[in-house]
Amino acid sequence: MTNPSTLTSNPPAPILSSRRDGPLELKPLRLGNIDVGFPVVQAALSGYSDWPMRIVARRLGAPYTIHEVVIDQFVLSLKDRDKTKHHLFITDEEHPVGGQLMGSEPDDFVAASEKLVNVGFDVIDINFGCPVKSAVNGCRGGYHLGQPDIALEIIRKVREIVPHEIPVTLKMRGGIDDSSQSKDQFFAILEGAYDAGIASVTVHARTVEQKYIGPSNWDFLCEVKRFAGDRTVLGSGDLFTAQACLDMIHETGVDGVTVARGAIGNPWIFQQAKDLASGKEITLPDLTEQKRVLQMQYDLHLEYFPQKAISTMRKFGIKFAPLHAQPVEVRNAFATIKTAEDWKNVLKQWYRS
Q: Would you state the pLDDT for residue 72?
């Protein structure tokens, strides 16, 4: 079973008849002692899921978000200074919020986990899933899926140092590659993680070797959930529509999903998933709503890290553009903004309702 939403460039046709006939029953998501609620949440997104993006997602229906992944040594190097205060920035509005950590050495992982706890994160998420070359070559992220002993040492030590009331979760991919050895290593880590007290495991249904090439493997998610039984498994990969989010839960049996790239430029996906699950029709945000949310995120950036507001919102504007009736022109307009006046003019020209 491959992800049906990747088999065509057109929007996927509805699969779950329950949305046409009535509401779809979904089990509320729980992470340790934290009641998340609706089981569609925002994943950690490197370079994207900063405080403004997470706040927008929460205001538009995400019940839980995760800070963009940070490297353990970077966390340990941070000082309490004005110029770095935007790193690991969280506020009361976004609780519960997770902090995701990536690294190579168990002791550094442990020390950085303690720092994330002290900052105020409600969940500590261990990243063994990042497939990018810099992470794998640095013995971080997905690299650990090829060394179960070290991976489990990290998990056990982090779980031991983090206070019991704070859940520790794990992000994985479906192994280093498609070999039987890699699969055995994956399940060894999965079982060991649960035994060590991990509250949930998120599985991106591709291997590290695949990166983002080809459809995510929903058959593998089915296998993982059968193996895990009543232990919490979240699915990830190719969740670009509310329909795909509900289909993954329904078709694979996972307890919830984490939306990653599908949430960049479309924070409405969380409320859309709720509406679809309850049997409601969903509609795309009109120009007035798109403008409102774009301006909201820009204003949050002015509060969060004003020096980077324009450059950051330039890349976000490009991601919002596909929702516009003239996506190419809007994308090109966002790509050229350099000043606050440029930002204002793009919204004025292209988002007149």
A: 82
139 is catalytic: no
d(CA 42, CA 24): 21
Rounded Cα distance between 307 and 145, Å, is 38
Cβ atoms of 280 and 272 within 8 Å: the answer is no
CB 225 within 8 A of CB 10: no
Instruction: Tell me how far CA of residue 45 lies from CA of 37, 58, 185, in angstroms.
Output: 21, 15, 25
Alpha helices in 216-304 (DSSP H): 218-228, 242-252, 269-277, 287-304
Asked if 75 and 88 count as a contact pair (C-beta separation under 8 A), the reply is yes
Distance CA 131, CA 142 (A): 6
Q: Which of 130, 139, 222, 245 is catalytic?
A: 130
Cα–Cα distance for residue pair 225/234, rounded to 1 Å: 9
CA distance 53 to 312: 11
State yes or no: pLDDT of 6 exceeds 50: no
Query: When comparing pLDDT for 134 and 352, which is higher?
Result: 352
Place of tokens 């995400």: 62
**CATH number for the segment(s) 4-277:** 3.20.20.70
The string of DSSP letters for 91-122 reads: -GGG-SEEEEEE-S-HHHHHHHHHHHHHHT-S
